[in-house]
Amino acid sequence: RKNRMVRMEMAKRCLRLGVGGHSLKRLSSLLVAGLFFSWLGYGYAADGLSPRHAAEQWEEIAKLRLQAARGHELQSERKREGAFRLSDVPSTAGDALDLAGDEKYSASDDYQKASKHWEKAAKAFRAAGDPDKAKDALENAAIALDAARRALREGAEFYKLAEEQFDSVNNLERKIMALKKSARNIERLMEMK
Fold first, then answer.
1. Could you count the other beta carbons within 10 Å of the beta carbon of residue 135?
2. How does DSSP assign 19-45, residue by residue?
3. d(Cα 152, Cα 158) in Å, to the nearest integer?
4. CA 111, CA 180: separation in Å to the nearest integer?
5. Do 114 and 178 contact (CB within 8 A), yes or no?
6. Cα–Cα distance measured from residue 9 to residue 152, given in angstroms and rounded to the nearest whole number
7. Would you write out the chain's pLDDT as a tens digit for each of its 193 residues?
């Protein structure tokens, strides 16, 4: 009953001010739009960041993740090269190939995280009103995701080579671990598609 009286009083005031039903709808639409646009930047404002600053931070984090992924790739190549130098000692070569596969897996993980950070940067750039930077960030996200897939495939190959080395010296425990890691990489690849 009280709400009804409040609504009637507001309607009387609106009529006195010359605000009719159509104008009232327009006014409420503008109010809703204003609230929506203020909410759009709220996620950044809550952190004390402008959308532009948030985008730049996500971009920086993505670049750092890419550097880490490239470091894992370099380590993987060193381990793989070491495995071929040790090819006359199959168990040691198998261990080196297994470690090379682990480095590829770590690289893939960092590439995937970089891709997600690029997507966050793109969203923030869009909120900051910079569609060109948003597009560039989305392209970088796609490139990082492709690199993650490639690293997983290469890691699975290293695990298969390690499995062959462990098989040649009848090290069943290490062979099984290499097979499981190879399967994990392939499963993760399937999940990414």
1. 13
2. --HHHHHHHHHHHHHHHHHHHHTHHHH
3. 10
4. 22
5. no
6. 68
7. 545 555 555 555 554 544 444 444 444 443 333 434 444 444 444 356 799 999 999 999 999 999 999 999 999 999 999 888 877 777 789 999 999 999 999 999 999 999 999 999 999 999 999 999 999 999 999 999 999 999 999 999 999 999 999 999 999 999 999 999 999 999 999 998 7
What's the pTM value of the predicted model, to 2 decimals? 0.73
| Residue 65, token pair as written in the block | 């993740």
Token digits of residue 29: 């639409």
Q: CA of 88: how far to CAs of 13, 78, 82, 93, 130, in Å?
A: 94, 18, 12, 8, 57
Half-sphere exposure at residue 160, Cβ-oriented, CA atoms within 13 angstroms: 9
d(CA 120, CA 101): 29
Amino acid at residue number 84:
F
